[in-house]
Write a structure and sequence with these properties.
99 residues; mainly beta; four-stranded antiparallel beta sheet; three-stranded antiparallel beta sheet; 0% helix; elongated
Length: 99
């Protein structure tokens, strides 16, 4: 399966994946790869797992247009990818109390 293309402004992702219901022991395969939407080349592997399992992986790549490819056989799976957002917070000025 291939996701639609998306633009990443930060290049940083949290990818949570889980596999279950392996059809027969040792038969389940699962891989999630981030690809460049411009060239189609694979950039990073988020998961490469055999059998039932789950994990949270943090990926860091240059900001670009990308997509994920999920390759799976003999098991059920779910994947959630969230992009990190960079923010700056200014400190609050000190509070002055008078009595």
């Amino acid at each position: 399966m291939q996701t639609g293309s998306f633009t990443s402004d930060s290049g940083s992702f949290r990818v949570q994946w889980e596999t279950s219901n392996e059809s027969s022991a040792g038969a389940g395969t699962f891989r999630v790869t981030l690809h460049s939407a411009i060239s189609g080349r694979p950039l990073l592997t988020a998961a490469d797992h055999l059998g039932v399992g789950k994990d949270t992986v943090y990926l860091h790549e240059d900001p670009r247009v990308s997509y994920f490819v999920i390759e799976s056989a003999n098991l059920d799976w779910s994947v959630a990818a969230e992009e990190a957002i960079v923010a700056t917070v200014s400190p609050s000025p000190p509070t002055v109390r008078t009595h």
